[in-house]
Amino acid sequence: MIDIQDLRKVYIMGEEGVQALGGVSLTIERGEYVAIIGPSGSGKSTLMNILGGLDRPTSGAYRFEGEDVSGFTDDELADFRRQRIGFVFQSFQLLPRLSALQNVELPMIYAGMAPKERRARAAELLERVGLGARLGHRPTQLSGGQQQRVAIARSLANRPDLLLADEPTGALDTSTGEEVLALFEELNAGGLTLAVVTHDPEVADMAHRRVSFRDGLIVSDERGRKA
Amino acid sequence: MTSDGMKSFELVRFALGAILAHPMRSVLTSLGVVIGVAAVVMMTSIGMGAQQRVTQAISGLGSNLIIVTPNFQRGPVSQAAGGGFSLRDGDAEAIARQVEDVEAVAPLVRGQAQLASDGANWNTQIQGVTPPYLVARDLKIASGRMFDENEARQGRKVVVVGPTVARELWGDSDPVGRRVRVRTVPFEVIGVLESKGQAGFGQDQDDVVLAPLSAVRSRIAGRRSRGDSVQTIYVKAVDEESLDRVQEDVTNLLRDQHKIRQGEEDDFQTQNMASILEASQAAVGTFTVLLAAVAGVSLVVGGVGIMNIMLVAVTERTREIGLRMALGAKRSHVLIQFALESVSLSLVGGLIGLTIGVLGAFAIAKLGDWPAAVPAWAGPLALGFSVVVGLVFGAYPSWRAARLDPIEALRRE
What we know:
The structure holds 2 protein chains of 2 kinds. Chain A is α/β, with parallel strands linked by helices. Chain A has a single domain (31-54, 85-223), classed as P-loop containing nucleotide triphosphate hydrolases (Rossmann fold). Helix content of chain A is 34%, strand content 29%. Chain A has 7 helices and 10 strands. In chain A, the strands form 2 sheets. Chain A has a 6-stranded mixed sheet with strand order 6-7-8-3-9-10, sandwiched between helices. In chain A, strands 2-1-4-5 form a 4-stranded antiparallel sheet, covered by helices on one side. In chain A, 47% of the residues are buried. By secondary structure, chain B is of the alpha+beta class. Chain B folds into 2 domains: 8-57 and 279-411, no CATH class; 72-266, no CATH class. Chain B has helices at 8-21, 23-59, 89-98, 132-136, 149-154, 163-170, 213-221, 243-257, 273-316, 318-326, 331-368, 378-402, 406-411, and strands spanning 65-70, 102-117, 120-129, 141-144, 158-161, 179-182, 185-193, 208-212, 232-237, 268-272. In chain B, strands 2-3-8-5-7-6 form a 6-stranded mixed β-barrel. At the A-B interface, helix 2 and helix 3 of A face helix 1, helix 10, helix 11 and helix 13 of B.
C-alpha cells in the first residue's frame, strides 16, 4: 500500500540545512500494524508527517496505492488527508468549543456528508469506542482517555486507509493507555492499517512490526509481536 | 473540484459559531462599523432632509415663477438719483400686455411697519401689491376677501393679513372688519390669508400684511420710493415648459423698455424659480456628500478594528487551523471561513448601525423640526459598505490563516 524509496528531508535552519531524513526506503502492506520508534530527533515524526500528507519530502518517492503523493499540490494533499488518512495526536487536538459528537463530525463536514448522515455515523463511532453515553460532552468534561477515544473516533470518520498515531498514549496514564492500545488492536484486527510513532517500548511491543530510526535512517526493521 | 463535496453553508456555520463563541468580543469588534454606518445613515438623512427643506422653501414662493429685481450692481447712470429703483409700474404693465404664456404679473413694494389695533402691537412686513399677487405666489384667502383691481387702483386703505399677524393682534377672534393702524394710518382688515407655514431658515411666511400697492406707496413707503417704482415684479408662467421662454421674453422686453443698447448690461435681473431650486439643491447635495464622506472615515476605522481582532483570532486559533487542515480542509476553506467571519462581524455591525442610524435620523427630525428623510438606498448602501469593509479588512488576516503550515500550526501551544 505504501512504498517509499530513498526519501530525504532537509530543513533549512538559518544558513545550514538540517537533514531529518537521510534516504529512507520502506514499504507497508495493507492491514499491517507498524510501530515507528526512535529517540526524539531521529526523523520518525518527519516520516509520519510525510506519510500523512502534511509535509513533502525534499527528494525521493512516496507512492500510496500506486499514486505519487510527493507530487501532489496543496489541494490534492488536503483531499488525500481527508480521504486516506486518520490522525491521532498525543495532545488529542479536539476543538474545545465543540461536543464530542461535533468533533467527530468535523472531517465528515469537509467531506460534504449530509448533516443527518454524519451525525448518525459520529454517534455510531463514539458508541464503538465506548462513549455512546457522552455524545454531548465537551472535551473539558471528559478524561484524557475519553478524549483520546473521541479523537480516534474522529480519525475513523471518513474510513481512512491508514491510521497514523503520534505518541497516542504519551499524555495518558498506564491503564487508560492500555485501553487505547486495546482499541488499536481491535481496529487492526478489523483490517485497518496502523502506523504508531512512539518512543515507548511497551507501545511498540504491541505492534506487529517495529521500524527503528536513528539520525534520519532506519537502523532496524523487526517483524512479529513481542507482547 | 470533483472530490470537494463540502457545502458552503457549513463554512458560514463555522464562521457564525466562532463569532457566537465570544459574544462580548464580537459586539465590541463590530462597534466601529456600527458607529460608522449609523453616522453615514444619519448624515445622509440630515442632508436629504435639508434638501427637502430647501425645496419646500423655494417652491413655497410660488411655482413657475420668475422674479424680476433691480440690478444693484449696475445702478443705471442715467437715473443715478433712483439707483436701485429701475423697475416701474409700466414695466409690469408691459409684461402683462406683451409677453405670451404669462398667467399673472405682480409688482410689489415692500415696507416695514408697526401695526396697532385694540391695544396690541406688532411689527411686520407690509407688501404693496395688486390682486394678481395671490395667483403669482400661490396664496389663498382663508376668510374675508382680497381687494379688487378698483380698490387697488384707488389706493383704498384696506389690508389682508397673514395668520401670524391675525393671531398676534387679535388672538382667536376673526379680524375681518376690524381697524388696524399701520404706522399712523388707519386701515380696514378685509381678509385673512391661508397659512403657508415656515419657509425654512426660520422665516415665517405667515407674518405679512398685503395692502394695495398705491396705498403702500403713498402712505407707508413714502419718501424712500419714487412715484412709480417697484421693488420686485413677480411673473408667473402658465406652465413649467414655457418658463425659460417667458424669462427670455421678459428680459428682452425690459431691455427694450429701459432702452439698454446691445452689449450693455441689464439694469435688472431675472431669476427663474426652477434654476434657483436646482442651484440650491446642488449645493445641499454637495454638502450631504461631504458629511457622508466624513462619516465614512469612521467606517474605515471600524474596519481596522475588525482587522485587529481577526489577526488576534488567527493567532489564538492557530492549532484549530492546523487541525482543520490535517482533517482535510483546503487552504481555500480556511481562507473563506475567516473571511466569512470578518464579513459577518462587519455585516452585523452594519445592520445594528443601520437601525441606530434610522432611529437617530427620526429622533433628530423630531427634536429639530426637520423632515426625516432616510433615503431608500441608505439600507442597501450601508449593508453593501459593511460587506466591502469586512472583505477588505478581513482579507489579510484570512490570508495569514490560510498560509499557515499545518505541522507548525499543530505544534503551537
